[in-house]
Write a structure and sequence with these properties.
This protein is an all-alpha fold. It has a single domain, classed as lambda repressor-like DNA-binding domains (434 Repressor (Amino-terminal Domain), Orthogonal Bundle). It is globular. The two termini are about 20 Å apart.
C-alpha cells in the first residue's frame, strides 16, 4: 500500500465513514443491535455492517428507513451541508 504525504483522502470515502459512524452511534444510543436494526429496515445484517463501517452508502429507500427506525431526521445522518462535509474526519 502506497501512502502519499499531503494527498487528501477520497472525500466520498470520508463521507461514507462519517455517515456510518453516525448510523452506529444512533443505533447504540437506542440500545439496538445490528440484527434489530437490520430487521427494522428490511436489510441484512451484513448490509447494516457495511453501512456502519463506511464501505457502502445505503440506497435512498434504506436511508429513509434508517432515519425512521433510528428516530432521527434524514439530514442528521445523510445531509450534505457544508458543516457535515467539513466535519468529516
Amino acid at each position: 500500500m502506497l501512502i502519499r504525504m499531503g494527498v487528501e483522502p477520497d472525500p466520498a470515502k470520508r463521507l461514507r465513514q462519517k455517515q456510518g459512524a453516525l448510523i452506529r452511534q444512533c443505533r447504540e444510543m437506542r440500545g439496538m443491535t445490528i440484527a434489530e436494526l437490520a430487521e427494522a429496515v428490511g436489510a441484512t445484517i451484513g448490509a447494516v455492517s457495511h453501512w456502519e463501517n463506511g464501505r457502502y452508502t445505503p440506497r435512498q429507500e434504506f436511508q429513509i428507513r434508517l432515519a425512521k427506525a433510528l428516530s432521527v431526521p434524514w439530514s442528521t445522518i445523510f445531509g450534505l451541508d457544508a458543516e457535515a462535509m467539513g466535519g468529516v474526519a
